[in-house]
Amino acid sequence: MAPSLEENEHVGEWHIAAPLDASKLQVTLVNNPKPLPMGEAIAFGKTVTDHMLRVTWTAESGWDTPRITPYGPIVLDPVASGLHYGFECFEGMKAYRDAAGRLRLFRPELNAARLNRSAARISLPTFDEAEFVKLVRMFVKIEGRWVGK
């Protein structure tokens, strides 16, 4: 997919904004994975895996290099609009194991499309849905031990 052209509002000129590109993924794994919680100890919003997927976006350059890194704090500028106006976009995508024990995602393309529509509605940057699904698949493969049987 070719990079999108976007007008730079600040100077009234056009520039090329980089698209989301899963082929540029950089992975840094933890040295000592934490033990898995037992049974009911896994709670949505409270239990976190060993890693997180991060991709930075700016109006000037578009999407940066995707990275899977050890889970940890993120740096947030105090003037980030999310702190002032609370823009947030969430899409829950289910990962599970089939009867043969293989990792599966439930309708990832539809989830990606819905997330993209939601992002556009609240003026957050959109992304190439196929590239997003590739990144999610790679993340789930790395964190597969967290997906129940």
Tags for this entry?
D-amino Acid Aminotransferase, Chain A, domain 1, 20% strand, 3-stranded mixed β-sheet, two-stranded antiparallel ribbon, 149 residues, 3 helices, single chain
Q: Provide the structure class.
A: alpha+beta
Q: Helical residue percent? A: 10-25%
Supply the number of helical segments: 3
Which outline best applies?
A: globular
The major beta sheet can be summarized as: 3 strands, mixed
Radius of gyration: 17 Å
| Average pLDDT for all residues | 87
Topology overview:
Layout (H helix, E strand, L loop, with lengths): L3 E5 L4 E5 L8 E2 L23 E4 L2 E2 L3 E2 L3 E4 L10 H5 L9 E3 L5 E3 L2 H14 L7 H14 L7
Parallel strand pairs: 3-7
Antiparallel strand pairs: 1-2, 4-7, 5-6, 8-9
Helix pairs in contact: 2-3
What does this structure look like?
GO terms for molecular function: branched-chain-amino-acid transaminase activity. Keywords: Pyridoxal phosphate. With 149 residues, this protein is an alpha+beta fold. It has one domain: D-amino Acid Aminotransferase, Chain A, domain 1 (2-Layer Sandwich), CATH 3.30.470. The chain contains 3 helices and 9 strands. The strands form 4 sheets. Strands 3-7-4 form a 3-stranded mixed sheet, with helices on one face. Strand 8 and strand 9 form a beta hairpin. The protein is globular and about 45 Å long.
